[in-house]
Write a structure and sequence with these properties.
The structure holds two protein chains of two kinds. By secondary structure, chain A is mainly alpha-helical. Chain A contains 17 helices and nine strands. In chain A, the strands form four sheets. A two-stranded antiparallel sheet of chain A has the order 2-6. In chain A, strands 3-4 form a two-stranded antiparallel ribbon. Chain A is globular and about 115 Å long. By secondary structure, chain B is mainly beta. Chain B is built from 13 helices and 50 strands. Chain B has a 22-stranded antiparallel β-barrel. Chain B is globular and about 105 Å long. The two termini of chain B are 30 Å apart. Classes of the chains: A mainly alpha, B mainly beta. At the A-B interface, helix 1, helix 2, strand 1, helix 3 and helix 4 of A face helix 5, strand 22, strand 24, strand 25 and strand 26 of B. Strand 1 of chain A pairs antiparallel with strand 30 of chain B.
Chain lengths: 487, 1000
Amino acid sequence: MAQQHSRGAAFRRTALGMFALAATTLTACDSNKLTSITNPNNYTSDGLAANPQAGIQLAVNGILIQERALYTGTVWQLGILGRENYYYFPTDSRYVTDYLIGNGTPAVLDPGGFASGMWAGAFVNMRNAVNIVGVANSANITAAQKAGVKGFAQTIRAMDVLYLLQTRDSIGVPVDVNADPSVVTNFVSRDSAYKFVTGMLDSAATNLGAAGSAFLFSLPSGWTGFDDPAGFLKVNRAVAARTYALRGSLLGNTNCTGGCYAAVLTALGGTWINTAPTSIAALNTGPQWVYSTNSGDTQNGLSVTGDANIVGWYKIDSLAQLKADNVTKDDRFTRKVVALASPRAAPGAGIGVPTPWKLNLYANTGSPVAFIRNEELILLRAEAEAATGALAAATTDINTIRTVSGGLAPIATLASSAAAIPVLYSERYWSLLMEGWHWVDARRWNLLATLPKDRPTHNVFKVVPIPTGECLSRNKTAGNVPAGACP
Amino acid sequence: VLLALPTVASAQQREITGTVTDRDERRPIQDATISISGTLLTARTNDRGIYRINAPTGQITIVVRHIGHKRTSVVVPAGQSTVDVAIEKDVAKIEGVVITGQATSVDRRNAPTAVSQVNAEELTSAPSTSLENALQGKVAGASINMNNGAPGGGGQIQIRGISSLQGNFQPLIVVDGVIVSNGNRSSNVSVASGSLNSGEENTLNRLSDFNPNDIESVEVLKSAAASAIYGSQATNGVILITTKRGKQGSPRFSLTQRIGVNELQRSLGSRKYTDIATLTDLAANVQGCADCTAWLQSQAWYTGNNAAAIPYIDQVGQFFNRKDPSSETVLSVSGGGDRTRYYFSANDKQDVGIAPNTGARKQSVLLNLDQDFGGGWIVNIGAQYIRNFAQRGISNNDNSNSSPLYVLGCTPSVIDLSALSTKNPWCGGYGVSSNPYNTFDKIQNNEDVNRTIVNAKVQWNAFSNAMNNVRFEARTGLDYFTSQNYVFFPPTLQYLWQGTNKPGLASQGNGDSHLMNQSVGGVWAFTPKGALVTFTTSAGIQIEQRVYNDYSLYSTGLPPVLSNANAGSTTVTSQGRSTIRNEAYYAQEQLQGFNDRLTVYASVRAEKSSVNGDRNKTYYWPRAAGSFRFDGWVPSMISTLKVRGGFGITGNQPGFGARDLVLGNYGLIGGNAGLGVPGTLGNVAIKPEKQQEGEIGLDFGLFKDRVLFEATYFDRTIRDLYLTAALPNSSGIGALNINGGKLHTRGREYTLTLLPVSTRDFTWTSRMTYSSNNAQLDSLAAGVAPFANGGAQRGFGTAYGRLYYTPGYNLTSIWGNRTANADGTGAITRTVVVGDANPQFLMSFPNDLRYKRWTAGFLVDWRKGGDISNMTLNQFDSYGVTWDYDTPSGNTTYPKSGDYRLNSWNGGANTVAYIQKGTYLKLREVRLSYDMPSSWFGGISQGKVSSLRVTAAGRNLWIKTKYNGYDPEVNNGGNFPVRFVDLAPWPPVKSFFLTFDVGF
């Protein structure tokens, strides 16, 4: 025992030293370990500031990715409202009830339901567009390069507001984002928003004009011919033509300064419009969203092999006009609509109707989508010509579409501007099927009542509501929501 | 622990020996601790119950302690050298020690905070799929729910209600001093099923890996005054798991063999069709057939238009009807001498799923070694290896008609799907055919976890005398596992999922998790001469690091035959990595004295973490608690009386990356990467949530502790809430990480233990636990408006009810729409409270009976209230196939219940139509066992078998509830603070097992 005691004393000293050493080891070198941990999963803001040119390129790509998503997300939803297609999701009946039935008295689209979207994405890209201009302004690049970035970003901003107007229309929309994301910007009226869009497009056009012969950044495939400032300006003008036409149909031609429809014709002059197309391909020219099956990329869900839930409106065949033989249907029907192997029923019992149709607009999940095409430009020109009294010219353009795109017989010269509306309404349905316009056309030409209801419980809605989340976070009381926008 | 320290005796004058036995059973007690009061002298009994201890001369008091028995003191006169002690069973669990610090503890009778301990016997009293399952009904103040009935278990433990809106909500789990993971990773089944998150994919949470047979005790630190030793990871409580260790004596082998079956807990049946007209209507509505009469007549099952000719199949009951035996084998050996003790166990558990082609298998080996090197050096080492393999098919929310309850919820009872080739023409029409038998036969969804946990503790009792006792401890622990998820959905499957994916999917996803913690500390116990108190001072350092690496590869469009994830036409890869490091210092002072009446401690932990915005900032987590016992000062009828109280501040860390200002990765366009504003904005000032909790309690015992009552009230306030606050969408940014606002939770917990009968032949212990709590949001961060959190776990939008964080309301409030009239008509009020998911209270009634060699027990669980969004019922109603569809509703417009419910729901205009109370009464556990007398087997086994016990036990054998679903306990999103979504769950099971325990 005594021996153990003396050994114990030495032991104690050694052991104490060991524990002290362990403690020191644990603490001494560790503060560095703690502070040097990085986040390997995402880009950081610091990383971008270090290389603005690469940053601008990445941001441009990001904006286009987001804009592509906006397009895809909008057209199938507006297609449901416009009786062009359905989204028959196998396990959730709300893709029928929330778009075609609604709730309340009188029925409205449920602001907390599925058909209250097409909202956030536009603002995300508005912010991206604002940010990229900020990055360009502080970067060490030429004035022309800065103007190029600005012209690009402003065009995108205008397109984003236009998306919002497509769905919110008379409610009005916010047109700007605040630098501080917790500060909301006020709603402006529909007409102010249209003016904002055209103003923004015009400002963008000026900047693109000062941007020299090439952008600082490159645009992805699908933008060939539109990927330098001059080419991109054509897209800018096409969007301007579209915007003036929408505004003109609401206000009447003469209520815009200088005439809305005159502005359409002027703007179209700056685009790639080809009024004498001889092929379907010539109708389809325009900038395209490209898709692929690569990891990280997006597939074309709108394609016939894409999202299987997108199916055609159940009586879409009944809307097709007949060719001169009075038997054969419009080529646009034959080209764009195919029969399903077996009919597809709506999810849930008793809320929808089965459909035998599938839309065949794009061949496969890698097919590109032209989001503004020569065919639309020609129809916009026809609309503007008719509205400005150039009935013969309007008829010619309409007949170009009817014959080239539809294989139909030409129509006789329009008798009046008003007579052009139902014609354009029908031609645009087929020419621009599931491109987001039929429901908008029905609304702007006061033809919503003509949209068919599949079942007695179905309804036709005028606007997509402001989503509940937006209303709640604006807290209703703040006074920055237009009356009635948040039920 | 301190009193039990081995020490070097210097003044021994005599040796005392004796035998320790169980008072009632008169069998020797192995591994009992014998100590001499007023000294640090201790000894242990061997496997024959014999001890030998050196004692001072003169009259002394020896104290005998053993887990499961009451502490017993015997006064030994001078000169006596043989002392046999018979000790009484601790049926009411008043003995034991509870943790008070990183390296300190006190006797349970002095505990200053509410204690919940579950011992080995309680954990294995009835068959369980996993540890969570075994803990149900046994921890007052903890709400323990199984997510569903899939094999392999998996469930949630929530301690004292909700402590965080959006931060971590799961308790910290510590096994033998090692902080372990309870995460679950996504299996990528979502790609094939369209479910929305890993909870819906029904992968296992990692607590389910642990084998209850290896666990000596589970201690739950509920109050902040107890859990604050874990600082910023303690807000949700801490679960301390202690595995079994070796006992002194010759090797004791124990073999446990269980065999049993799992069955559907309750089948609700299907709607029975008695006329073909109803089916024709249904076909018209679901199918949209032009001539539904002709269509029905063309169906294989159609044999005529009369009630008797219409087939009836209980769709859910038939699908979840696999009754193959499940089994479990546990072999353990324990033993050791004076210096070395060891415990080894091996376990193999196979759980058969009640659905075809599903099951789970857990295998583990555990080795615990304790070595006393002399000189005060003690080393404890533990290592376990676990393999947890599960095939759990598909369940929960689904967006492709792959989840069985979705499909069976739109299939009328007329068609028999059990033949794999049968096409199911219902559910979505001709275009989408889904047969779950076919699906489950062909798919693979394998989760394979290989896990190693090792721990080592070096303890050095540096110095010991009558006044001072100094000890140092160093600990290191590692929890490393790889979770491999392989998913294969062959292109030949009858159901083709929707969306842009092509048929044929294979996915391989791996997650590596590497958790390590180390600590060094010292404890100094000081008893001043003549003083009535002992001061215990401890201090130390702790480092903890967690490294995760999660990567997966899946491809779709697989050609036939091939089943590798690189074989498809579209391949998607992903990877996420994170590292979290915490560094902490702690110091604690504990005071005990006045004849063991007073216990007080106070401590502080200073901590830095890499997840905080300011990594160099130290956060302090203090606590203090005390108890005082009045025993002996009160009328003798009151055998014990203790008041206690505590206060603590704990934290809840922000998530990894919350501090980082990152940009969103938007993917590719034309082969080029793009980025933009992130969905959630990082915040460089992010910090932990701060919980402040006060707890008071009163414990008393009556009639020699035949009646024991513990009452606890707590009041906690959580500030600096870590929010991912939704911004107005028109800002262009989805959400912002921010601290701010406040919530409070108040609750009470009662435990009543009765010992109505305690004789040598017959004992009956009856317990009752009660707990209730309520969490309310007081405020949100400045500038943050009330918001609904996205994500399916928080509910499926206003139509079905969702969570919407609003100051002044309960956090468990379910928000939705409501119409003026109950039948779904009239004006709609949007964003109103339509229910509350919080139960009014939870109660449980465990009972144990022993009569001679028979023991029996049962546990009844009662939950009162707590609303649930019954989306499963909505699914069945939507397709007109609900079990009670035709029950009269009392409504004249819609006389059938199913029709009435669906119409009064009105497409979500009246959410409340599918909000139902989740009250239930369940017979959780019931068992009967018999210890065979050795005379029965002694001859046959030639004396080698020392004990043989047979047990019959069942779980969930009976449930009583008005809830119109399979079980109100389920939750679609898996573990989540507010559980209220019942959506196509794997229906819960009941099980019945026979167990043979052989000791030799």
